Amino acid sequence: MAGISRDDVAHVARLARLALTEEELDRFSGQLAAVLEHAADVASLDTAGVPPTAHPFPLVNVLRDDVPGPSLDRDEVLSEAPAAEDGRFRVPRILGEAP
Amino acid sequence: MSAAGVAAAVRAGARAAVDVVEEHLASIAGREDELHAFNLVLADEARAAAEEIDRRVAAGEDPGPLAGVPVALKDNLCTRGIATTCSSRILDGWRPPYDATVVTRLREAGAVLVGKTNMDEFAMGSSTENSAFGPTRNPHDLSRVPGGSSGGSATAVAAGFAAAALGSDTGGSIRQPAALCGVVGVKPTYGLVSRYGLVAFASSLDQVGPITTSVADAAAVLEVIAGHDPADSTSLPRPAPALRAVLGEGVEGLRVGVLREFVDAVDPEVAARVTAAATALESAGAKVDEASVPATTLGLSAYYLIATAEASSNLARYDGVRYGLRVDGDDITSMYGATRAAGFGAEVKRRIMLGTYALSAGYYDAYYGQAQKARTLIIRDFDAAYGSYDLLLAPTTPTTAFELGAKAGDPLTMYLSDVCTIPSNLAGHPAMSLPYGRGGDGLPIGVQLLAPALGEATMFRAAAVLEASLA
Question: Could you give the 3-state DSSP secondary structure of residue B123?
Answer without folding.
Answer: helix
